[in-house]
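Journal club prep — side note

Before the paper discussion, L.F. wants everyone to see what a predicted structure for a comparable chain looks like in token form. Sequence:
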Amino acid sequence: PYIQGKNIGIAVIDSGVNPNGDLYTQMGANRQIANVRFNSDYNQSTSDGYGHGTHVASIIAGDGSESNGKYIGVAPLANIINVKVSNDNGSARMTDIVSGLEWVLKNKNKYQIRVVNLSLNSTVAESYHTSPLDAAVEILWFNGIVVVVSAGNYGSGAIYPPANDPFVITVGATDDKGTGSIADDTLASFSAYGTTEAGAVKPEIVAPGRNITARLVNMNMGLPAAHSANIVNGQYFRMSGTSMAAPMVSGAVAMLLQDEPNLTPDQVKYRLMATANQ
């Protein structure tokens, strides 16, 4: 059987994840196995009123059943742990994100959380030595959880926490031009890259992040309401950003860990970098 991330838990630290048919098994079991929220402002439910987190989760683990397999995630048997930290505008407080990461650490064994996806970035530059967000992701890393972070959409020279942390896997975005070949792939113009204040070159890896179609649920609010032209077949949505590239890598990590569950985060990071196309 194909490796599809089965039984690997991936925590999506985002705007929430709305349950949908693409996150169920063929036997009808919900693979969205936990829902918690830490945002301290409006919409105190674990639901996603923005669309970002649901899209990210779909890229990681959607099985494409609602589109007859046309739009399928990278690891379609992985489990999703919904850790809502941002509001319906997609903004979050750093303290809420850190609280969500702390919850992941405490519950990693309960939900078999091996991967954390952070498709978010601080808006303020800060050294990884002093950033609470960087400290939090490092604690997870040292406790055996692979942390995948979007590089950000600021272009050259701007790498903000937690993407600037030297331990985590920071992911930039490519434009695959809508083709299956990688020969025509280019770095997306918005994708952040550069050298951090501590001398780390970021991102370590890039993945498709332009015009990525994935499942959404609420089409009358948040991102789909603001960008209705990007709605695909009434249930899917097309988005671009390093936020879309990071979950591609999170899904790949889930498959690697299903195949070799004893790998450490450092070994996972090395494998990805050593086998990536140069």
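L.F.'s comment for the group: The first helix runs from residue 52 to 61. Keep this in mind when we get to the figures.
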